[in-house]
Design goal:
With 246 residues, this protein is of the alpha/beta class. The protein has helices at 19-26, 40-45, 52-59, 64-73, 77-92, 99-105, 107-112, 122-133, 143-151, 155-158, 185-196, 217-220, 225-232, 234-240; strands spanning 2-4, 9-12, 35-36, 114-119, 169-170, 173-174, 178-181.
């Protein structure tokens, strides 16, 4: 998730839609108080430099109160501005914050800035989500079982970041200015850069977290799984005319 005050844009990071790649690219152009949550490892590896706010938020493991006390003792005015922000987003925003959460955090930026996100075919995204979520697990449930957990309302307990449509809509209405597609990432990110006045250079579009061995999506699906994905992501499937991969 990014709120860039220098370039006046907001990026909503939908999980498993090349969001880390987008963040790593855009972070190279940050101003000192632009806010990015998540994807900093990828951004630094792509040539970005941690700005003042990132250093406060990422590298200091103290509580916001202790950070403030430390900076007050050091009379650091610039850093205090960052602490005011870090205290707010520490409890109100996360890597994958929704439109409603971001608007509540900074209504002025939400009203004035260019807002965008990226989406992905839900049938593919569900498989990517499964492989990523259980990448370090000694034992993992089946893909079908993960879908059942989500349908049963147990995703939050299992910390499965499955939501997508809910992040960039309100009352089932899209509230961002642009929705890019992972399937045409370069073209759509170039479009975004044109809109916010940044140069686009595909050499810096590193595929963060991409699986070098593209899985056979269809092999994961057992009887009933397609219908489960259609129920979970029906609004997104209908809006963007996604279909099960042939």
């Amino acid at each position: 998730m990014i709120i860039s005050h220098r370039h006046k844009f907001i990026f909503i990071h939908v999980p498993k839609t090349a969001g880390s790649t987008v963040s790593a690219y855009l972070a190279r152009e940050f101003g000192p108080w632009d806010l990015q949550l998540g994807s900093w490892k990828d951004a630094l590896g792509n040539g970005a430099k941690a700005n003042r706010l990132a250093l406060i938020a990422m590298f200091c493991h103290l509580s916001p109160l202790k950070i403030a006390q430390t900076l007050i003792r050091n009379h650091s005015v610039d850093s205090l501005a960052g602490v005011a922000l870090s205290r707010r987003f520490a409890g109100r925003l996360a890597d994958h914050s929704s439109a409603s959460e971001i608007e509540a955090f900074d209504p002025t930026a939400w009203k004035q800035y260019f807002k965008f996100c990226f989406v992905r075919n839900p049938f593919e995204r569900a498989v990517s989500l499964y492989n990523w979520h259980y990448r370090k697990a000694d034992t993992r449930p089946s893909f079908s079982q993960m879908l059942c957990l989500i349908e049963a309302g147990a995703a939050e307990k299992e910390r499965i970041n499955w939501k997508s449509w809910q992040l960039y809509t309100k009352n089932d209405e899209v509230v961002v200015d642009f929705v890019g597609r992972q399937e045409r990432l370069s073209e759509d990110l170039r479009n975004v850069c044109d809109r916010i006045g940044l140069p686009f250079d595909e050499r810096f579009l590193t595929r963060a977290k991409a699986n070098p061995r593209r899985p056979d999506i269809r092999s994961y699906y057992k009887p009933g799984d397609r219908e489960r994905v259609e129920r979970l992501f029906g609004a997104e499937i209908e809006r963007f005319k996604y279909r099960f991969p042939d």
